[in-house]
Amino acid sequence: MKRISTFVIFVCALLMFAAPTFGQGDTEVIEPKDPDMMDPAAHISFPPPVYVVRGSVDIRGTVILDIMRNFYIEFRPLDLDMMGDAAAQDQWFPATLPRIEAVADDILGSWNTMTLDDGLYELRLTVNIGGDAPLYYRVSPIRVENRPMVAAAEEQAIAMDEPEMPSVAEPAPEADGEPGVDPMTDPSPRVIATVNSNVRAGDSTQYGVIGHLLEGQSAPIRGISSFATRWWYIELANGRRGFIFPGIVRAEGDLSNLPRINPPPLPPTPVPIPTAMPAPQQPQPQQPTTGPDLYIEQPTFIDPHPVSCGQTYKITVTVRNGGSAASTSGGLIEVRDSGNAGSAAAETTRIAFGALAPGQAQTVFGALSPTVHVETLHHINMFLDVHNQVAETNENNNLRAERPYILGRGSC
User: Fold this and answer.
1) Cα-based angle 16, 19, 25 (whole degrees, multiple of 5)
2) Nearest 10 degrees: CA dihedral of 346, 349, 355, 359?
3) What is the per-residue pLDDT across 370-388, written as a single tens digit (0 to 9) for each?
4) pTM > 0.85
5) Would the CA dihedral through 16, 22, 26, 27 be positive or negative?
6) Do 74 and 94 form a contact (C-beta atoms < 8 A)?
7) Please, are residues 67 and 396 in contact by the beta-carbon 8 Å criterion?
C-alpha cells in the first residue's frame, strides 16, 4: 500500500504541471504499470514509469523470445479528455523502426521527442510472434519536457547575472574519489563520467552491473580490456573494480602502457520463462515428435575477433542434427553483422550446409568483411536454415549470438 500511495502522489504532481488540455475537472487517474508485472523475456527497463525525458532518448530493455518475428516501440499522448474515445486510445505513433535481432538488457531503439509537445505520453513495446496476436508491454506515464518552465529559466538568468562572489579565495575543488589530486599536473590515468554510467563485471552490456559512476565523478583506470573493445577497467571508491564503456566517460592522464585485463567469461544466455497459455477450445494439430532437429553446435569460431574496417574474418560453424530422423535437404546459415548498436542495416553472408542423418554433424565455413559503422559496437547473429527449407521438430534453437565487438578504424 505504501508503494501504491507513493506512485499516486508522483502522478498527481506530474498532472499539476501538465499541458492545458488536462482540465481540473477530470477525475480519472493514469496509473503507472506495476514493475512487479515485468515479463523478463520482453519488457522496457528504461525509462521507468513517472519519468521525465527530453531530446533523443535511448529506450532500453529485453526481447529474447525464440518465437519473435520482429519488435518495435510506439508512443501516444495521454490526454484525459480523450480517455472515453476508443479510436483515440487505439492511435499509436512509431517511435522506432522494427528490429529482428534479440536484445538482452540493451538499447531497443532511440525515441526522438524534439518534435513533440511537452506533456504526458505512454510507450508500448510490440512483439510480433507470427500468426498469433502480438505481445505488448506498456510504460505509462512518461513526461516529455524539452522546454523548461519559465520560472526555472528566470531563476537561472538571475543566477547568471548576479553571481555570488566569495569574499576570500577558495581552494580548488578536489577530484571526486581522489583527494588532493590536481588534474593539471597528475599524470595518473583516470576517467570522468560525462553521464550517469553503469560499471559492469565485463566489457559488454551482457555483463551484470556492479556499481555506478555518476556524472562528473572520476575513478582511476587500472587497465583496458584485452579484447580490443576499448572498455576501461576502473576502480570505484568502495574498492570494487569493473569495466566502463569508453563512449560515456572522458579519459585523462597517461594512458600508455596500461595493463590488458581479460574479462570474465560471458554469463549464460537468459532462458525465457514460459508463459501460461489458455487451453484451446478446438483440437490443435500436435507438433511432430519425430523428425530432424538442427542446431548450431558450440563453440563457433570467429577469427580474427575483433576486426578492423575492411578486414575479413573467417566463420567456422558446426551444424548438428539432434533429431530422430534425417533432414530431407540442406539449407543456409545467414550471418548478420549489425553495427551502430544493432539499429542499422546489417552486412550479411550465407553459408550452405547439406542434409544430415540423425546425430550427424557438419562443419562449414564462411567469411565476412565489415566496412560500415566504424568505431561503434557490432553484433554478430547467426540464423540457421534461414529459408525454412528443413521441417524440424523444434524451430526455437536456430538462432545464435556471438560476442559483440567494436569495429576498428583500419583502412577505412
Assistant:
1) 60
2) -70
3) 888 888 888 888 889 888 8
4) no
5) negative
6) yes
7) yes
